[in-house]
Amino acid sequence: MTPAVVTVSGNQRGFPEPLEFRASTEIAGSVSADAVVRENCFLHVRGNVVGGLTIEPGADVIVDGYVGGKIANRGGRLVVKNKGLTASVTLEGPSESEADAILKINLNAIAFNWEKLGNFTDAECAASLKCNAYGCGIDRVAEALAKSGCQTFFVTDLHEAKRVRAVAPNSTIYVLHGFYFGTGAAFAECNAQPVINSAIELAAWDQFVGSTQWTGGYALNVNTGEGNLGLSMQEAEALATRMHVSNHGITLLTSSLANSERANDPQTERQIALVRELRRLYRGVPTSLAGSTAIVVNRSSHFDLVRAGSALFGINPTPGSLNPMLPVVELSARILQVREVAPGKDITDNNGWFAKRRRLAFLSVGHADGFPRARHPGSKLYAMIGGYRCPVAGRTSLDLLPIDVTDLPDAHAARVGEMATLIGSAIGIDQVAESTNSTGAEVLSGLGGRFHRIYYAT
């Protein structure tokens, strides 16, 4: 019997959970819900199964990618080709018993988010892993994305380029901070390409290429908006004469949108028009303009290559709308002390905040760890303890965070040594950012190195 071919994308909204397969089926994409394959059925998933997978007797299942959740095989056959990730757990930093806080990073979710963003476009989907992959660890993240099929990476500097090259030997790597004198040998050594942002950088690059005959290319970045790095349009137009030389070396034209959240924004439309003009002048050179938000909301900005950035890590690319990304990180901190406050007594911090509640728990995390400060006592910043939201009771100090646990239904849930969750599925990064007058990217990239880190792909 020929299996039915079904195209499945996104989060399969409208489908029952778990998904039940009662007939032979081939899925052209990934499945993000739990799935059950009934007796004697055949299922071929040409992507990933992000949820769990239950296989009943006689069922035959092939998954081209990975299975992210628990597998319950009750007598069928399962082939996981692992084109993407294999199950693994990697630990970094101080040991869990010695660390005051634990940061978990779900590599499966990062891979899923990259694939999800890629489904919004016909262009190649690159990964922008600047700032050490937004603080998540560029080595682990780049390796996971490379195994999942990502071929092009954007990094901040040469140090990051070398780290990506070590785990993604066949990838194309662009260095956003460009080129300056004395770095040519390092670019050649790791086969990375600078993103040229000025005429001075281009002159330095030309001198290096001329003296070494290096054949590696470079990206040309043009400032089509306001306040960004890049050549002016006038400079870019003048440099287009390079296209008459066969070995011009330009492998990519890039620019960045000043306001990517609205598809019909006049400035965005002006920038798209300028990029189209550049494409005419630099005919045949691939072009990249769109970042995470524009990937989702503005298809006309996609051109040849899009750059997925903070959304890879679960940050909402469409603020004000439902987040299409899976959560990636979970941050938990240890309870150091629980203090009972006598009726009528106050506890005052160094900033003049005070607690009038009866019971406070002090967590072992602070702004030395990159956890953002609540700006005022009314900030809606919480920790999850025993399954309940408990409000932050004062400003974050260098390495302590006071939590109001007065209303916990189970007082024993807040015990010394237990962990409280500050970022996770119930309290997302964007919520923490909103509560601290920050952004999701700022919160994520600020999380420090004192944590016990757990990277997992299961």
Task: Describe this entry's structure for a reader.
- With 458 residues, the protein is α/β, with parallel strands linked by helices.
- It has three domains: 77 residues, no CATH class; 194 residues, Alanine racemase (TIM Barrel, Alpha-Beta Barrel); 129 residues, Beta Barrel (Lyase, Ornithine Decarboxylase, Chain A, domain 1), CATH 2.40.37.
- The protein has eleven helices and 28 strands.
- The chain has an eight-stranded parallel sheet with strand order 18-17-16-15-14-13-12-19. Strands 10, 11, 20, 23, 26, 27 and 28 form a seven-stranded mixed sheet that branches. Strands 1-3-5-7-9 form a five-stranded parallel sheet, with no helix packed on it.
- Helix 1 crosses helix 3 and helix 10 crosses helix 11.
- The longest helix is centred in the middle third of the chain and has 16 residues.
- The radius of gyration is 25 Å and the shape is globular.
- About 2% of the residues have low confidence.
Percent of residues in helices comes to: 10-25%
Overall 3D form: globular
Share in β-strands: 25-35%
The H-level CATH homologous superfamily of the largest domain, spelled out, is Alanine racemase
Instruction: Round the Cα radius of gyration to an integer and report it.
Output: 25 Å
Q: Helical element count?
A: 11
The level 1 CATH classification of the largest domain is: Alpha Beta
CATH fold annotation of the largest domain:
TIM Barrel
The number of E-state strands comes to 28
Mean of the pLDDT scores? 88
The CATH architecture of the largest domain: Alpha-Beta Barrel
